[in-house]
Amino acid sequence: MAAKILLVASDPAEALFLSETLVQGGYRVIPSDDAITALPLTRREAPDLVLVDLTLTGAMMLLSRLSFFPDTATIPTLALADSQLVAGEAMRMGTRAVLSKPIVTPDLLAAVSDHVMSPGALTAAPPTLLAHPPRLDALRNLGVLDTPPEEIYDRFTRLVSHIVDVPVALISLVDGNRQFFKSQVGLREPWATMRQTPLSHSFCQFTATFRQPVVINDATEHPLVAHNLAVSEMDVAAYAGVPLITSSGEAVGSLCAIDAKPREWSDDEVAALTDLGAILMELLELRSPGRAKDSESRRSEVA
């Protein structure tokens, strides 16, 4: 089946040229001439790639919104620009590549071919989602970043290791540039002592930003993570992670199971992880400094 390209351009002549070029290149084109309606159109059609003309009014806003929502942030975007300043701004918003206008047909088709959606088109979590201020505030408010190991949380990772039969289990909290392990079982050194990694070694960044379970049977063959350094340096061959979502709706990390060899994860195993993750999130919030202060205040009022 031909890949779907959502083309967002307002100039009729240029839009026609781009559409014809893409169709001749073997792609199916969904046209849009309005940046406001392009976002709901993207969410409804789930294209394999979005091609945006940055001279369109509202184009930058569209790029920003596409990178914000988990269901559209994973869709690669290409942009067409007539200035280096605009091109740079688009790249900072997560656009995979910017083509200079006027468009050269071979360059357009080559760029689309390089970036059209596959399971691995997104090789890092969108920075705009990871650094979203409410998400980072919710993470900090839990009061567990950079705190020592605690037995109450280590029980969760031991349970995951036992129930799912894996050598490694993690409670991973993901901020804007790293993942911190509140608890871990089975990690080899130096990671066990460091209790954190940069995002270059993180699968949990995707669990947190996608806000849904991420299940990978063979990391070496999965384009999303095949080049992640956790594969080569931490022996991560199979991964199943469920998001830790606060009561305010912010995904702050993952409870995950890791195997050093490829494996098929069962629905029951993912369901068990999901239940344990929900209980863990309730515990994290109950033990957060803010909740503890509220409880202490209520006890004082009763006394």
Q: How many distinct domains?
A: 2
Query: Please, how many helices?
Result: 14
Separation of the first and last Cα atoms: 70 Å
The structural class is: alpha/beta
Average residue-wise pLDDT: 90
Name some characteristics of this structure.
single chain, alpha/beta, Rossmann fold, Beta-Lactamase, 2 domains, 14 helices
Helix and strand topology:
Layout: E1 4-8, H1 12-24, E2 28-32, H2 35-45, E3 49-53, H3 59-68, H4 70-73, E4 77-81, H5 84-92, E5 97-100, H6 105-115, H7 127-130, H8 133-141, H9 151-164, E6 168-174, E7 178-185, H10 191-194, E8 196-198, H11 204-210, E9 214-216, H12 229-233, E10 238-245, E11 251-259, H13 267-286, H14 289-302
Parallel strand pairs: 1-2, 1-3, 3-4, 4-5
Antiparallel strand pairs: 6-7, 6-11, 7-8, 9-10, 10-11
Helix pairs in contact: 2-3, 9-13
Briefly summarize what is shown.
The protein has 303 residues and is of the alpha/beta class. Helix content is 45%, strand content 20%. It folds into two domains: 4-115, Rossmann fold; 127-296, GAF domain (Beta-Lactamase, 2-Layer Sandwich).
Can you put this structure into words, describing what you see?
This protein is of the alpha/beta class. It has 2 domains: 4-115, Response regulator (Rossmann fold); 127-296, 2-Layer Sandwich (Beta-Lactamase). Helix content is 45%, strand content 20%. The chain is built from 14 helices and 11 strands. It has helices at 12-24, 35-45, 59-68, 70-73, 84-92, 105-115, 127-130, 133-141, 151-164, 191-194, 204-210, 229-233, 267-286, 289-302, and strands spanning 4-8, 28-32, 49-53, 77-81, 97-100, 168-174, 178-185, 196-198, 214-216, 238-245, 251-259. The strands form 2 sheets. It has a 6-stranded antiparallel sheet. Strand 10 (238-245) and strand 11 form a beta hairpin. The longest helix has 20 residues, at 267-286. The termini are far apart. The relative contact order is 0.10. The mean pLDDT is 90.
